[in-house]
From TrEMBL:
GO terms for molecular function: aminopeptidase activity; metal ion binding; metallopeptidase activity. Its EC number is 3.4.11.9. Residues 412-499 form the Peptidase M24 domain. Keywords: Aminopeptidase, Hydrolase, Metal-binding, Metalloprotease, Protease. This is Probable Xaa-Pro aminopeptidase P. It catalyses: Release of any N-terminal amino acid, including proline, that is linked to proline, even from a dipeptide or tripeptide. GO terms for cellular component: cytoplasm. It comes from Arthrobotrys conoides. Residues 101-226 form the Creatinase N-terminal domain. Gene3D superfamilies: Creatinase/methionine aminopeptidase superfamily, Creatinase/prolidase N-terminal domain. It comes from the Eukaryota.
Amino acid sequence: MQSAAFRILRSLPTRTSNSPKPALSCARSATRSRLCISRQSYSTRSRNSRQTPSPGTLLAALSHRQPKLPNSLRILGLPRRLFSTLPESTSQHTMANTTERLAALRALMKENGIDVYIVPSEDAHQSEYTSPCDGRREYISGFTGSAGWALITHDKAALSTDGRYFNQAEQQLDENWTLLKQGMPDVPTWSEWVAAEATGGKNVGVDASLLTYAFSKSLKTKIQKKGGGDLVGMTENLVDKVWGSERPARPAEPVIILDKKFAGKDFVEKIEDLRKELTKQKSHGLVLTGLDEVMWLFNIRGSDIPFNPVFFCYAIVTPTTTTLFINPRQRSSELESHLGEHVQLVDYDNVLTTLTALSENTVDEKAAEPQKFLFPANASWALAQALGEKRLEEIRSPVTVAKAIKNETELEGMRQCHIRDGVALIEYFAWLEEQLRNGVELDEVDAADKLEEFRKKKENFVGLSFGTISSTGANAAVIHYHPERPTAAKIDPNAIYLCVSPLYLPS
Protein backbone atom coordinates (compact mmCIF):
# COMPACT_ATOMS: atom_id res chain seq x y z
CA MET A 1 0.00 0.00 0.00
CA GLN A 2 1.43 3.37 -1.01
CA SER A 3 1.41 6.32 1.33
CA ALA A 4 -0.43 9.54 0.61
CA ALA A 5 2.89 11.29 0.05
CA PHE A 6 3.94 8.75 -2.56
CA ARG A 7 0.60 8.96 -4.35
CA ILE A 8 0.98 12.75 -4.54
CA LEU A 9 4.45 12.39 -6.00
CA ARG A 10 3.20 10.00 -8.66
CA SER A 11 0.43 12.41 -9.67
CA LEU A 12 2.95 15.09 -10.60
CA PRO A 13 4.44 15.50 -14.11
CA THR A 14 7.21 13.02 -14.80
CA ARG A 15 10.58 13.40 -16.44
CA THR A 16 10.56 13.07 -20.22
CA SER A 17 12.84 10.60 -21.99
CA ASN A 18 15.19 13.44 -22.89
CA SER A 19 15.31 14.93 -19.43
CA PRO A 20 18.55 14.55 -17.48
CA LYS A 21 18.35 11.48 -15.29
CA PRO A 22 19.12 12.02 -11.61
CA ALA A 23 21.66 9.76 -10.00
CA LEU A 24 19.14 8.58 -7.45
CA SER A 25 15.42 7.90 -7.63
CA CYS A 26 12.73 9.05 -5.22
CA ALA A 27 10.92 6.39 -3.20
CA ARG A 28 8.48 6.57 -0.35
CA SER A 29 6.46 4.17 1.77
CA ALA A 30 4.55 4.81 4.96
CA THR A 31 6.27 2.17 7.02
CA ARG A 32 9.80 2.32 5.63
CA SER A 33 10.42 5.75 4.23
CA ARG A 34 13.80 6.81 2.93
CA LEU A 35 14.94 10.38 2.81
CA CYS A 36 18.25 11.33 1.27
CA ILE A 37 19.74 14.75 0.87
CA SER A 38 22.35 14.80 -1.85
CA ARG A 39 24.41 17.19 -3.92
CA GLN A 40 22.75 15.84 -7.07
CA SER A 41 20.92 18.57 -9.00
CA TYR A 42 18.82 18.71 -12.13
CA SER A 43 19.96 20.56 -15.27
CA THR A 44 17.95 23.56 -16.38
CA ARG A 45 15.61 22.88 -19.28
CA SER A 46 13.25 24.95 -21.38
CA ARG A 47 10.11 26.11 -19.65
CA ASN A 48 7.99 24.01 -22.01
CA SER A 49 9.67 20.72 -21.04
CA ARG A 50 8.10 18.58 -18.36
CA GLN A 51 10.47 18.28 -15.41
CA THR A 52 10.14 16.37 -12.20
CA PRO A 53 9.75 18.87 -9.36
CA SER A 54 12.00 18.20 -6.43
CA PRO A 55 10.26 16.78 -3.36
CA GLY A 56 11.41 19.95 -1.62
CA THR A 57 9.20 21.98 -3.96
CA LEU A 58 6.34 19.54 -3.39
CA LEU A 59 6.62 19.75 0.38
CA ALA A 60 6.78 23.51 0.33
CA ALA A 61 3.69 23.66 -1.86
CA LEU A 62 1.85 21.41 0.55
CA SER A 63 2.86 23.64 3.44
CA HIS A 64 1.99 26.82 1.49
CA ARG A 65 5.47 28.20 1.29
CA GLN A 66 8.21 28.24 -1.32
CA PRO A 67 11.56 26.71 -0.40
CA LYS A 68 14.79 28.60 -0.77
CA LEU A 69 17.28 25.78 -0.52
CA PRO A 70 20.80 25.90 -1.95
CA ASN A 71 21.12 24.46 -5.45
CA SER A 72 23.17 21.58 -4.07
CA LEU A 73 20.33 20.36 -1.85
CA ARG A 74 17.83 17.79 -3.11
CA ILE A 75 15.76 15.10 -1.39
CA LEU A 76 16.15 11.78 -3.16
CA GLY A 77 15.47 8.09 -2.52
CA LEU A 78 18.54 5.92 -2.07
CA PRO A 79 18.38 2.37 -3.47
CA ARG A 80 20.14 -0.18 -1.26
CA ARG A 81 22.29 -1.30 -4.19
CA LEU A 82 24.14 2.01 -3.98
CA PHE A 83 25.34 1.36 -0.44
CA SER A 84 28.49 -0.36 -1.67
CA THR A 85 29.56 2.76 -3.56
CA LEU A 86 29.54 5.00 -0.50
CA PRO A 87 32.68 5.74 1.52
CA GLU A 88 33.59 3.80 4.63
CA SER A 89 31.96 5.01 7.82
CA THR A 90 34.18 6.48 10.46
CA SER A 91 32.12 4.83 13.19
CA GLN A 92 33.72 1.78 14.82
CA HIS A 93 32.00 -1.32 16.19
CA THR A 94 33.07 -2.72 19.54
CA MET A 95 35.07 -5.96 19.44
CA ALA A 96 34.35 -8.54 22.12
CA ASN A 97 36.93 -10.97 23.52
CA THR A 98 35.43 -14.41 22.96
CA THR A 99 38.36 -16.56 24.11
CA GLU A 100 36.88 -17.59 27.47
CA ARG A 101 33.40 -18.11 26.04
CA LEU A 102 34.69 -20.39 23.30
CA ALA A 103 36.80 -22.37 25.77
CA ALA A 104 33.76 -22.95 27.98
CA LEU A 105 31.62 -23.94 24.99
CA ARG A 106 34.24 -26.39 23.72
CA ALA A 107 34.41 -28.03 27.13
CA LEU A 108 30.64 -28.60 26.99
CA MET A 109 30.91 -29.88 23.43
CA LYS A 110 33.46 -32.45 24.57
CA GLU A 111 31.24 -33.54 27.47
CA ASN A 112 28.33 -34.08 25.08
CA GLY A 113 30.29 -35.80 22.31
CA ILE A 114 29.84 -32.90 19.87
CA ASP A 115 32.55 -32.10 17.33
CA VAL A 116 30.89 -29.19 15.51
CA TYR A 117 28.33 -26.87 17.11
CA ILE A 118 25.92 -24.62 15.19
CA VAL A 119 24.58 -21.38 16.66
CA PRO A 120 21.77 -19.88 14.51
CA SER A 121 20.47 -16.31 14.76
CA GLU A 122 16.80 -17.26 15.11
CA ASP A 123 14.73 -18.09 18.18
CA ALA A 124 12.45 -21.07 18.74
CA HIS A 125 9.74 -19.43 16.62
CA GLN A 126 12.01 -18.63 13.65
CA SER A 127 11.48 -14.93 14.32
CA GLU A 128 13.26 -12.49 12.02
CA TYR A 129 13.82 -10.19 14.99
CA THR A 130 14.76 -11.67 18.36
CA SER A 131 14.66 -10.74 22.02
CA PRO A 132 17.99 -10.10 23.81
CA CYS A 133 17.61 -13.42 25.65
CA ASP A 134 17.84 -15.20 22.28
CA GLY A 135 20.97 -13.36 21.10
CA ARG A 136 23.13 -16.48 21.35
CA ARG A 137 25.05 -16.00 18.13
CA GLU A 138 25.86 -12.43 19.16
CA TYR A 139 26.99 -13.54 22.61
CA ILE A 140 29.33 -16.30 21.46
CA SER A 141 30.85 -14.42 18.49
CA GLY A 142 30.60 -10.73 19.36
CA PHE A 143 28.95 -10.05 15.98
CA THR A 144 25.79 -7.94 16.39
CA GLY A 145 24.43 -8.01 12.83
CA SER A 146 20.91 -9.35 12.33
CA ALA A 147 21.87 -12.29 10.10
CA GLY A 148 24.51 -14.98 10.34
CA TRP A 149 25.54 -18.37 11.67
CA ALA A 150 28.26 -19.10 14.23
CA LEU A 151 30.05 -22.43 13.71
CA ILE A 152 32.42 -23.86 16.30
CA THR A 153 34.71 -26.91 16.28
CA HIS A 154 37.30 -27.86 18.90
CA ASP A 155 39.96 -25.76 17.17
CA LYS A 156 38.10 -23.42 14.80
CA ALA A 157 35.36 -20.81 14.91
CA ALA A 158 33.68 -19.34 11.84
CA LEU A 159 31.00 -16.72 11.30
CA SER A 160 29.01 -16.77 8.07
CA THR A 161 27.06 -13.68 7.01
CA ASP A 162 25.99 -11.86 3.86
CA GLY A 163 27.41 -8.82 2.08
CA ARG A 164 25.44 -6.32 4.15
CA TYR A 165 27.62 -7.12 7.14
CA PHE A 166 31.11 -7.87 5.82
CA ASN A 167 32.59 -4.61 7.11
CA GLN A 168 30.81 -4.85 10.45
CA ALA A 169 31.86 -8.46 10.99
CA GLU A 170 35.49 -7.67 10.20
CA GLN A 171 35.41 -4.97 12.87
CA GLN A 172 33.60 -7.02 15.52
CA LEU A 173 35.12 -10.50 15.22
CA ASP A 174 38.26 -11.04 17.28
CA GLU A 175 41.27 -13.19 16.38
CA ASN A 176 39.43 -16.40 17.31
CA TRP A 177 37.08 -16.15 14.35
CA THR A 178 37.19 -16.67 10.58
CA LEU A 179 34.68 -14.72 8.48
CA LEU A 180 32.89 -16.69 5.76
CA LYS A 181 31.74 -14.09 3.25
CA GLN A 182 28.51 -15.57 1.98
CA GLY A 183 28.17 -15.44 -1.81
CA MET A 184 31.81 -14.60 -2.53
CA PRO A 185 33.82 -16.78 -4.98
CA ASP A 186 35.48 -19.87 -3.48
CA VAL A 187 33.83 -19.29 -0.10
CA PRO A 188 31.77 -22.25 1.16
CA THR A 189 28.27 -21.77 2.48
CA TRP A 190 27.98 -22.28 6.21
CA SER A 191 26.33 -25.69 5.70
CA GLU A 192 29.13 -26.77 3.32
CA TRP A 193 31.69 -25.68 5.89
CA VAL A 194 29.93 -27.68 8.61
CA ALA A 195 29.62 -30.77 6.41
CA ALA A 196 33.32 -30.61 5.54
CA GLU A 197 34.30 -30.29 9.20
CA ALA A 198 32.12 -33.29 10.08
CA THR A 199 33.77 -35.74 7.69
CA GLY A 200 34.94 -38.94 9.29
CA GLY A 201 31.76 -39.66 11.22
CA LYS A 202 31.79 -36.59 13.49
CA ASN A 203 28.75 -35.30 15.36
CA VAL A 204 27.27 -31.89 14.57
CA GLY A 205 25.20 -30.49 17.44
CA VAL A 206 22.46 -27.86 17.39
CA ASP A 207 19.62 -26.80 19.65
CA ALA A 208 16.70 -28.62 17.99
CA SER A 209 14.33 -25.77 18.82
CA LEU A 210 16.30 -23.34 16.64
CA LEU A 211 16.11 -25.25 13.34
CA THR A 212 12.94 -25.99 11.43
CA TYR A 213 12.13 -29.65 11.04
CA ALA A 214 12.23 -29.35 7.24
CA PHE A 215 15.68 -27.76 7.23
CA SER A 216 17.08 -30.18 9.79
CA LYS A 217 16.31 -33.07 7.43
CA SER A 218 18.09 -31.49 4.47
CA LEU A 219 21.09 -30.48 6.60
CA LYS A 220 21.32 -33.96 8.11
CA THR A 221 21.37 -35.48 4.62
CA LYS A 222 24.10 -33.08 3.45
CA ILE A 223 26.30 -33.87 6.45
CA GLN A 224 25.86 -37.61 6.04
CA LYS A 225 26.58 -37.57 2.31
CA LYS A 226 29.69 -35.42 2.68
CA GLY A 227 31.57 -37.72 5.00
CA GLY A 228 29.43 -39.87 7.22
CA GLY A 229 28.82 -37.29 9.94
CA ASP A 230 25.54 -36.91 11.80
CA LEU A 231 23.34 -34.01 12.93
CA VAL A 232 22.30 -34.24 16.58
CA GLY A 233 19.23 -32.33 17.74
CA MET A 234 19.97 -31.33 21.33
CA THR A 235 17.39 -30.58 24.01
CA GLU A 236 19.57 -28.08 25.87
CA ASN A 237 21.40 -25.10 24.46
CA LEU A 238 25.13 -25.14 25.18
CA VAL A 239 25.55 -21.39 24.64
CA ASP A 240 22.86 -20.77 27.25
CA LYS A 241 24.88 -22.84 29.73
CA VAL A 242 28.00 -20.77 28.99
CA TRP A 243 26.00 -17.55 29.23
CA GLY A 244 24.66 -18.57 32.63
CA SER A 245 23.26 -15.93 34.95
CA GLU A 246 24.38 -13.12 32.64
CA ARG A 247 21.81 -14.13 30.04
CA PRO A 248 18.86 -11.67 29.98
CA ALA A 249 15.60 -13.03 31.35
CA ARG A 250 12.88 -13.90 28.87
CA PRO A 251 10.46 -10.95 28.74
CA ALA A 252 6.87 -11.31 29.91
CA GLU A 253 5.31 -7.99 28.92
CA PRO A 254 1.54 -7.43 29.29
CA VAL A 255 -0.68 -8.98 26.64
CA ILE A 256 -2.75 -6.48 24.67
CA ILE A 257 -6.23 -7.25 23.32
CA LEU A 258 -6.79 -6.10 19.74
CA ASP A 259 -10.26 -4.62 19.40
CA LYS A 260 -12.54 -6.08 16.75
CA LYS A 261 -12.82 -2.60 15.21
CA PHE A 262 -9.22 -3.13 14.03
CA ALA A 263 -9.34 -6.89 13.36
CA GLY A 264 -12.71 -6.93 11.60
CA LYS A 265 -13.39 -10.47 12.80
CA ASP A 266 -13.78 -12.13 16.18
CA PHE A 267 -11.13 -14.72 17.04
CA VAL A 268 -13.84 -17.34 17.67
CA GLU A 269 -14.93 -16.98 14.04
CA LYS A 270 -11.33 -17.39 12.90
CA ILE A 271 -10.94 -20.60 14.88
CA GLU A 272 -14.22 -21.94 13.48
CA ASP A 273 -12.89 -21.31 9.97
CA LEU A 274 -9.64 -23.03 10.90
CA ARG A 275 -11.49 -26.09 12.17
CA LYS A 276 -13.26 -26.38 8.83
CA GLU A 277 -9.82 -26.59 7.24
CA LEU A 278 -8.79 -29.28 9.74
CA THR A 279 -11.86 -31.30 8.79
CA LYS A 280 -11.10 -30.82 5.12
CA GLN A 281 -7.54 -32.04 5.66
CA LYS A 282 -8.75 -34.94 7.86
CA SER A 283 -6.28 -33.79 10.49
CA HIS A 284 -6.29 -34.21 14.23
CA GLY A 285 -4.99 -30.70 14.84
CA LEU A 286 -2.64 -27.86 13.97
CA VAL A 287 0.52 -26.76 15.77
CA LEU A 288 1.16 -23.00 15.54
CA THR A 289 4.63 -21.62 16.28
CA GLY A 290 4.89 -18.37 14.29
CA LEU A 291 4.27 -15.54 16.74
CA ASP A 292 2.61 -13.33 14.13
CA GLU A 293 0.18 -16.15 13.29
CA VAL A 294 -0.85 -16.68 16.91
CA MET A 295 -1.30 -12.92 17.38
CA TRP A 296 -3.56 -12.72 14.33
CA LEU A 297 -5.62 -15.80 15.17
CA PHE A 298 -6.47 -14.75 18.73
CA ASN A 299 -6.63 -10.95 18.14
CA ILE A 300 -3.91 -10.31 20.71
CA ARG A 301 -0.63 -8.42 20.71
CA GLY A 302 2.45 -8.02 22.89
CA SER A 303 5.92 -6.49 23.14
CA ASP A 304 8.31 -9.26 24.18
CA ILE A 305 10.52 -8.62 21.14
CA PRO A 306 11.72 -5.04 20.57
CA PHE A 307 9.84 -3.25 17.77
CA ASN A 308 7.52 -6.23 17.22
CA PRO A 309 3.90 -6.49 18.46
CA VAL A 310 4.22 -10.10 19.64
CA PHE A 311 4.80 -12.14 22.79
CA PHE A 312 6.24 -15.63 23.26
CA CYS A 313 3.60 -18.30 22.82
CA TYR A 314 2.50 -21.43 21.00
CA ALA A 315 -0.96 -22.65 20.07
CA ILE A 316 -2.52 -26.02 19.31
CA VAL A 317 -5.94 -26.18 17.68
CA THR A 318 -7.80 -29.49 17.37
CA PRO A 319 -11.36 -30.16 16.18
CA THR A 320 -12.60 -29.81 19.76
CA THR A 321 -9.98 -27.89 21.78
CA THR A 322 -7.85 -24.76 21.58
CA THR A 323 -4.74 -24.36 23.73
CA LEU A 324 -2.59 -21.25 24.09
CA PHE A 325 0.84 -21.64 25.72
CA ILE A 326 2.02 -18.46 27.45
CA ASN A 327 4.17 -17.33 30.35
CA PRO A 328 2.04 -17.57 33.54
CA ARG A 329 3.08 -14.01 34.40
CA GLN A 330 1.25 -12.81 31.29
CA ARG A 331 -2.11 -14.20 32.32
CA SER A 332 -4.54 -11.47 33.28
CA SER A 333 -8.24 -11.07 33.94
CA GLU A 334 -8.50 -9.05 30.74
CA LEU A 335 -6.94 -11.84 28.67
CA GLU A 336 -9.05 -14.53 30.33
CA SER A 337 -12.18 -12.48 29.72
CA HIS A 338 -11.23 -12.03 26.06
CA LEU A 339 -10.57 -15.74 25.50
CA GLY A 340 -13.43 -16.95 27.67
CA GLU A 341 -14.20 -20.65 27.77
CA HIS A 342 -13.00 -21.13 24.21
CA VAL A 343 -9.28 -21.35 25.01
CA GLN A 344 -7.26 -23.27 27.59
CA LEU A 345 -4.17 -21.45 28.91
CA VAL A 346 -1.08 -23.59 29.58
CA ASP A 347 2.46 -22.72 30.70
CA TYR A 348 4.73 -21.81 27.76
CA ASP A 349 7.42 -24.26 28.91
CA ASN A 350 4.99 -27.19 28.77
CA VAL A 351 4.49 -27.22 25.02
CA LEU A 352 6.82 -30.17 24.35
CA THR A 353 5.37 -32.43 27.05
CA THR A 354 1.84 -31.47 25.99
CA LEU A 355 2.56 -32.38 22.38
CA THR A 356 4.02 -35.74 23.39
CA ALA A 357 0.99 -36.55 25.55
CA LEU A 358 -1.40 -35.39 22.83
CA SER A 359 0.32 -37.60 20.30
CA GLU A 360 0.16 -40.65 22.57
CA ASN A 361 -3.45 -40.09 23.64
CA THR A 362 -4.88 -39.66 20.15
CA VAL A 363 -3.68 -42.88 18.55
CA ASP A 364 -6.49 -44.86 16.95
CA GLU A 365 -5.31 -48.46 17.11
CA LYS A 366 -8.00 -49.51 14.60
CA ALA A 367 -6.85 -47.02 11.98
CA ALA A 368 -4.58 -48.25 9.20
CA GLU A 369 -2.44 -45.13 9.63
CA PRO A 370 -2.26 -42.72 12.59
CA GLN A 371 -4.25 -39.52 12.15
CA LYS A 372 -1.80 -36.69 11.66
CA PHE A 373 -1.29 -33.16 12.92
CA LEU A 374 -0.74 -30.34 10.45
CA PHE A 375 2.84 -29.15 10.99
CA PRO A 376 3.81 -25.76 9.48
CA ALA A 377 7.07 -25.31 7.60
CA ASN A 378 8.35 -22.86 10.24
CA ALA A 379 7.85 -25.29 13.15
CA SER A 380 10.97 -26.51 14.91
CA TRP A 381 12.73 -29.85 14.91
CA ALA A 382 12.19 -30.01 18.69
CA LEU A 383 8.41 -29.87 18.23
CA ALA A 384 8.61 -32.60 15.59
CA GLN A 385 10.60 -34.78 17.99
CA ALA A 386 7.98 -34.26 20.72
CA LEU A 387 5.03 -34.96 18.46
CA GLY A 388 6.63 -37.88 16.66
CA GLU A 389 7.62 -37.66 13.03
CA LYS A 390 5.03 -40.25 11.99
CA ARG A 391 2.24 -38.10 13.44
CA LEU A 392 2.92 -34.93 11.49
CA GLU A 393 2.07 -33.70 8.01
CA GLU A 394 4.26 -30.86 6.75
CA ILE A 395 2.23 -28.06 5.18
CA ARG A 396 2.11 -24.35 4.69
CA SER A 397 0.18 -23.06 7.68
CA PRO A 398 -3.49 -22.40 6.84
CA VAL A 399 -3.28 -19.43 9.22
CA THR A 400 -0.59 -17.90 6.99
CA VAL A 401 -2.99 -18.15 4.06
CA ALA A 402 -5.97 -16.79 5.99
CA LYS A 403 -3.93 -13.92 7.44
CA ALA A 404 -2.82 -12.87 3.97
CA ILE A 405 -6.41 -12.37 2.76
CA LYS A 406 -7.42 -9.08 4.35
CA ASN A 407 -11.02 -8.33 5.23
CA GLU A 408 -12.55 -4.95 4.46
CA THR A 409 -11.89 -3.61 7.97
CA GLU A 410 -8.20 -4.49 7.68
CA LEU A 411 -7.97 -2.99 4.19
CA GLU A 412 -9.56 0.27 5.29
CA GLY A 413 -7.34 0.36 8.37
CA MET A 414 -4.30 -0.03 6.12
CA ARG A 415 -5.46 2.83 3.91
CA GLN A 416 -6.09 5.14 6.85
CA CYS A 417 -2.80 4.39 8.61
CA HIS A 418 -0.87 5.13 5.41
CA ILE A 419 -2.65 8.45 5.08
CA ARG A 420 -1.93 9.39 8.69
CA ASP A 421 1.69 8.35 8.39
CA GLY A 422 2.05 10.13 5.05
CA VAL A 423 0.98 13.36 6.74
CA ALA A 424 3.54 12.83 9.52
CA LEU A 425 6.28 12.25 6.95
CA ILE A 426 5.39 15.38 5.00
CA GLU A 427 5.40 17.41 8.20
CA TYR A 428 8.82 16.01 9.04
CA PHE A 429 10.31 16.65 5.60
CA ALA A 430 9.04 20.22 5.62
CA TRP A 431 10.43 20.77 9.12
CA LEU A 432 13.83 19.33 8.17
CA GLU A 433 14.13 21.52 5.07
CA GLU A 434 13.16 24.57 7.10
CA GLN A 435 15.80 23.86 9.75
CA LEU A 436 18.58 23.23 7.24
CA ARG A 437 17.64 26.25 5.16
CA ASN A 438 17.87 28.45 8.26
CA GLY A 439 21.25 27.02 9.22
CA VAL A 440 20.03 25.20 12.34
CA GLU A 441 22.57 22.62 13.52
CA LEU A 442 21.03 19.16 13.86
CA ASP A 443 22.58 15.78 14.50
CA GLU A 444 21.29 12.37 13.46
CA VAL A 445 19.53 11.78 16.79
CA ASP A 446 17.76 15.16 16.62
CA ALA A 447 16.28 14.21 13.25
CA ALA A 448 15.20 10.71 14.30
CA ASP A 449 13.58 11.99 17.50
CA LYS A 450 11.70 14.71 15.62
CA LEU A 451 10.26 12.24 13.14
CA GLU A 452 9.03 10.03 15.97
CA GLU A 453 7.55 13.12 17.63
CA PHE A 454 5.48 13.90 14.53
CA ARG A 455 4.26 10.30 14.40
CA LYS A 456 3.33 10.14 18.07
CA LYS A 457 0.82 12.93 17.51
CA LYS A 458 -1.17 10.81 15.07
CA GLU A 459 -4.17 8.72 16.08
CA ASN A 460 -3.50 5.08 17.04
CA PHE A 461 0.28 5.46 17.13
CA VAL A 462 1.80 2.43 18.89
CA GLY A 463 5.53 2.55 18.20
CA LEU A 464 8.32 2.04 15.69
CA SER A 465 8.86 -1.25 13.86
CA PHE A 466 12.65 -0.86 14.16
CA GLY A 467 15.05 1.84 15.31
CA THR A 468 15.10 4.75 12.87
CA ILE A 469 18.16 4.76 10.64
CA SER A 470 19.08 8.45 10.60
CA SER A 471 22.52 8.81 9.03
CA THR A 472 24.58 11.47 7.34
CA GLY A 473 27.72 11.32 5.22
CA ALA A 474 29.72 8.11 5.49
CA ASN A 475 27.34 6.75 8.13
CA ALA A 476 24.75 6.34 5.36
CA ALA A 477 26.80 3.39 4.10
CA VAL A 478 26.40 1.45 7.36
CA ILE A 479 23.67 -1.18 7.19
CA HIS A 480 21.11 -0.87 10.00
CA TYR A 481 22.97 2.14 11.39
CA HIS A 482 21.45 3.52 14.58
CA PRO A 483 22.71 6.91 15.81
CA GLU A 484 23.58 7.38 19.45
CA ARG A 485 25.08 10.21 21.39
CA PRO A 486 27.82 11.31 21.79
CA THR A 487 28.93 9.78 18.47
CA ALA A 488 25.96 10.96 16.36
CA ALA A 489 27.16 13.04 13.40
CA LYS A 490 25.95 16.54 12.53
CA ILE A 491 23.74 16.65 9.43
CA ASP A 492 25.59 18.38 6.61
CA PRO A 493 23.37 19.77 3.79
CA ASN A 494 26.27 19.19 1.40
CA ALA A 495 26.48 15.46 2.19
CA ILE A 496 24.04 12.60 1.82
CA TYR A 497 21.48 12.21 4.59
CA LEU A 498 19.68 8.84 4.74
CA CYS A 499 16.58 8.18 6.83
CA VAL A 500 15.02 4.71 6.84
CA SER A 501 11.94 5.24 8.91
CA PRO A 502 9.64 2.53 10.36
CA LEU A 503 6.22 2.51 12.03
CA TYR A 504 3.74 0.09 13.60
CA LEU A 505 0.03 0.86 13.90
CA PRO A 506 -2.77 -1.46 15.06
CA SER A 507 -4.79 -0.64 11.95
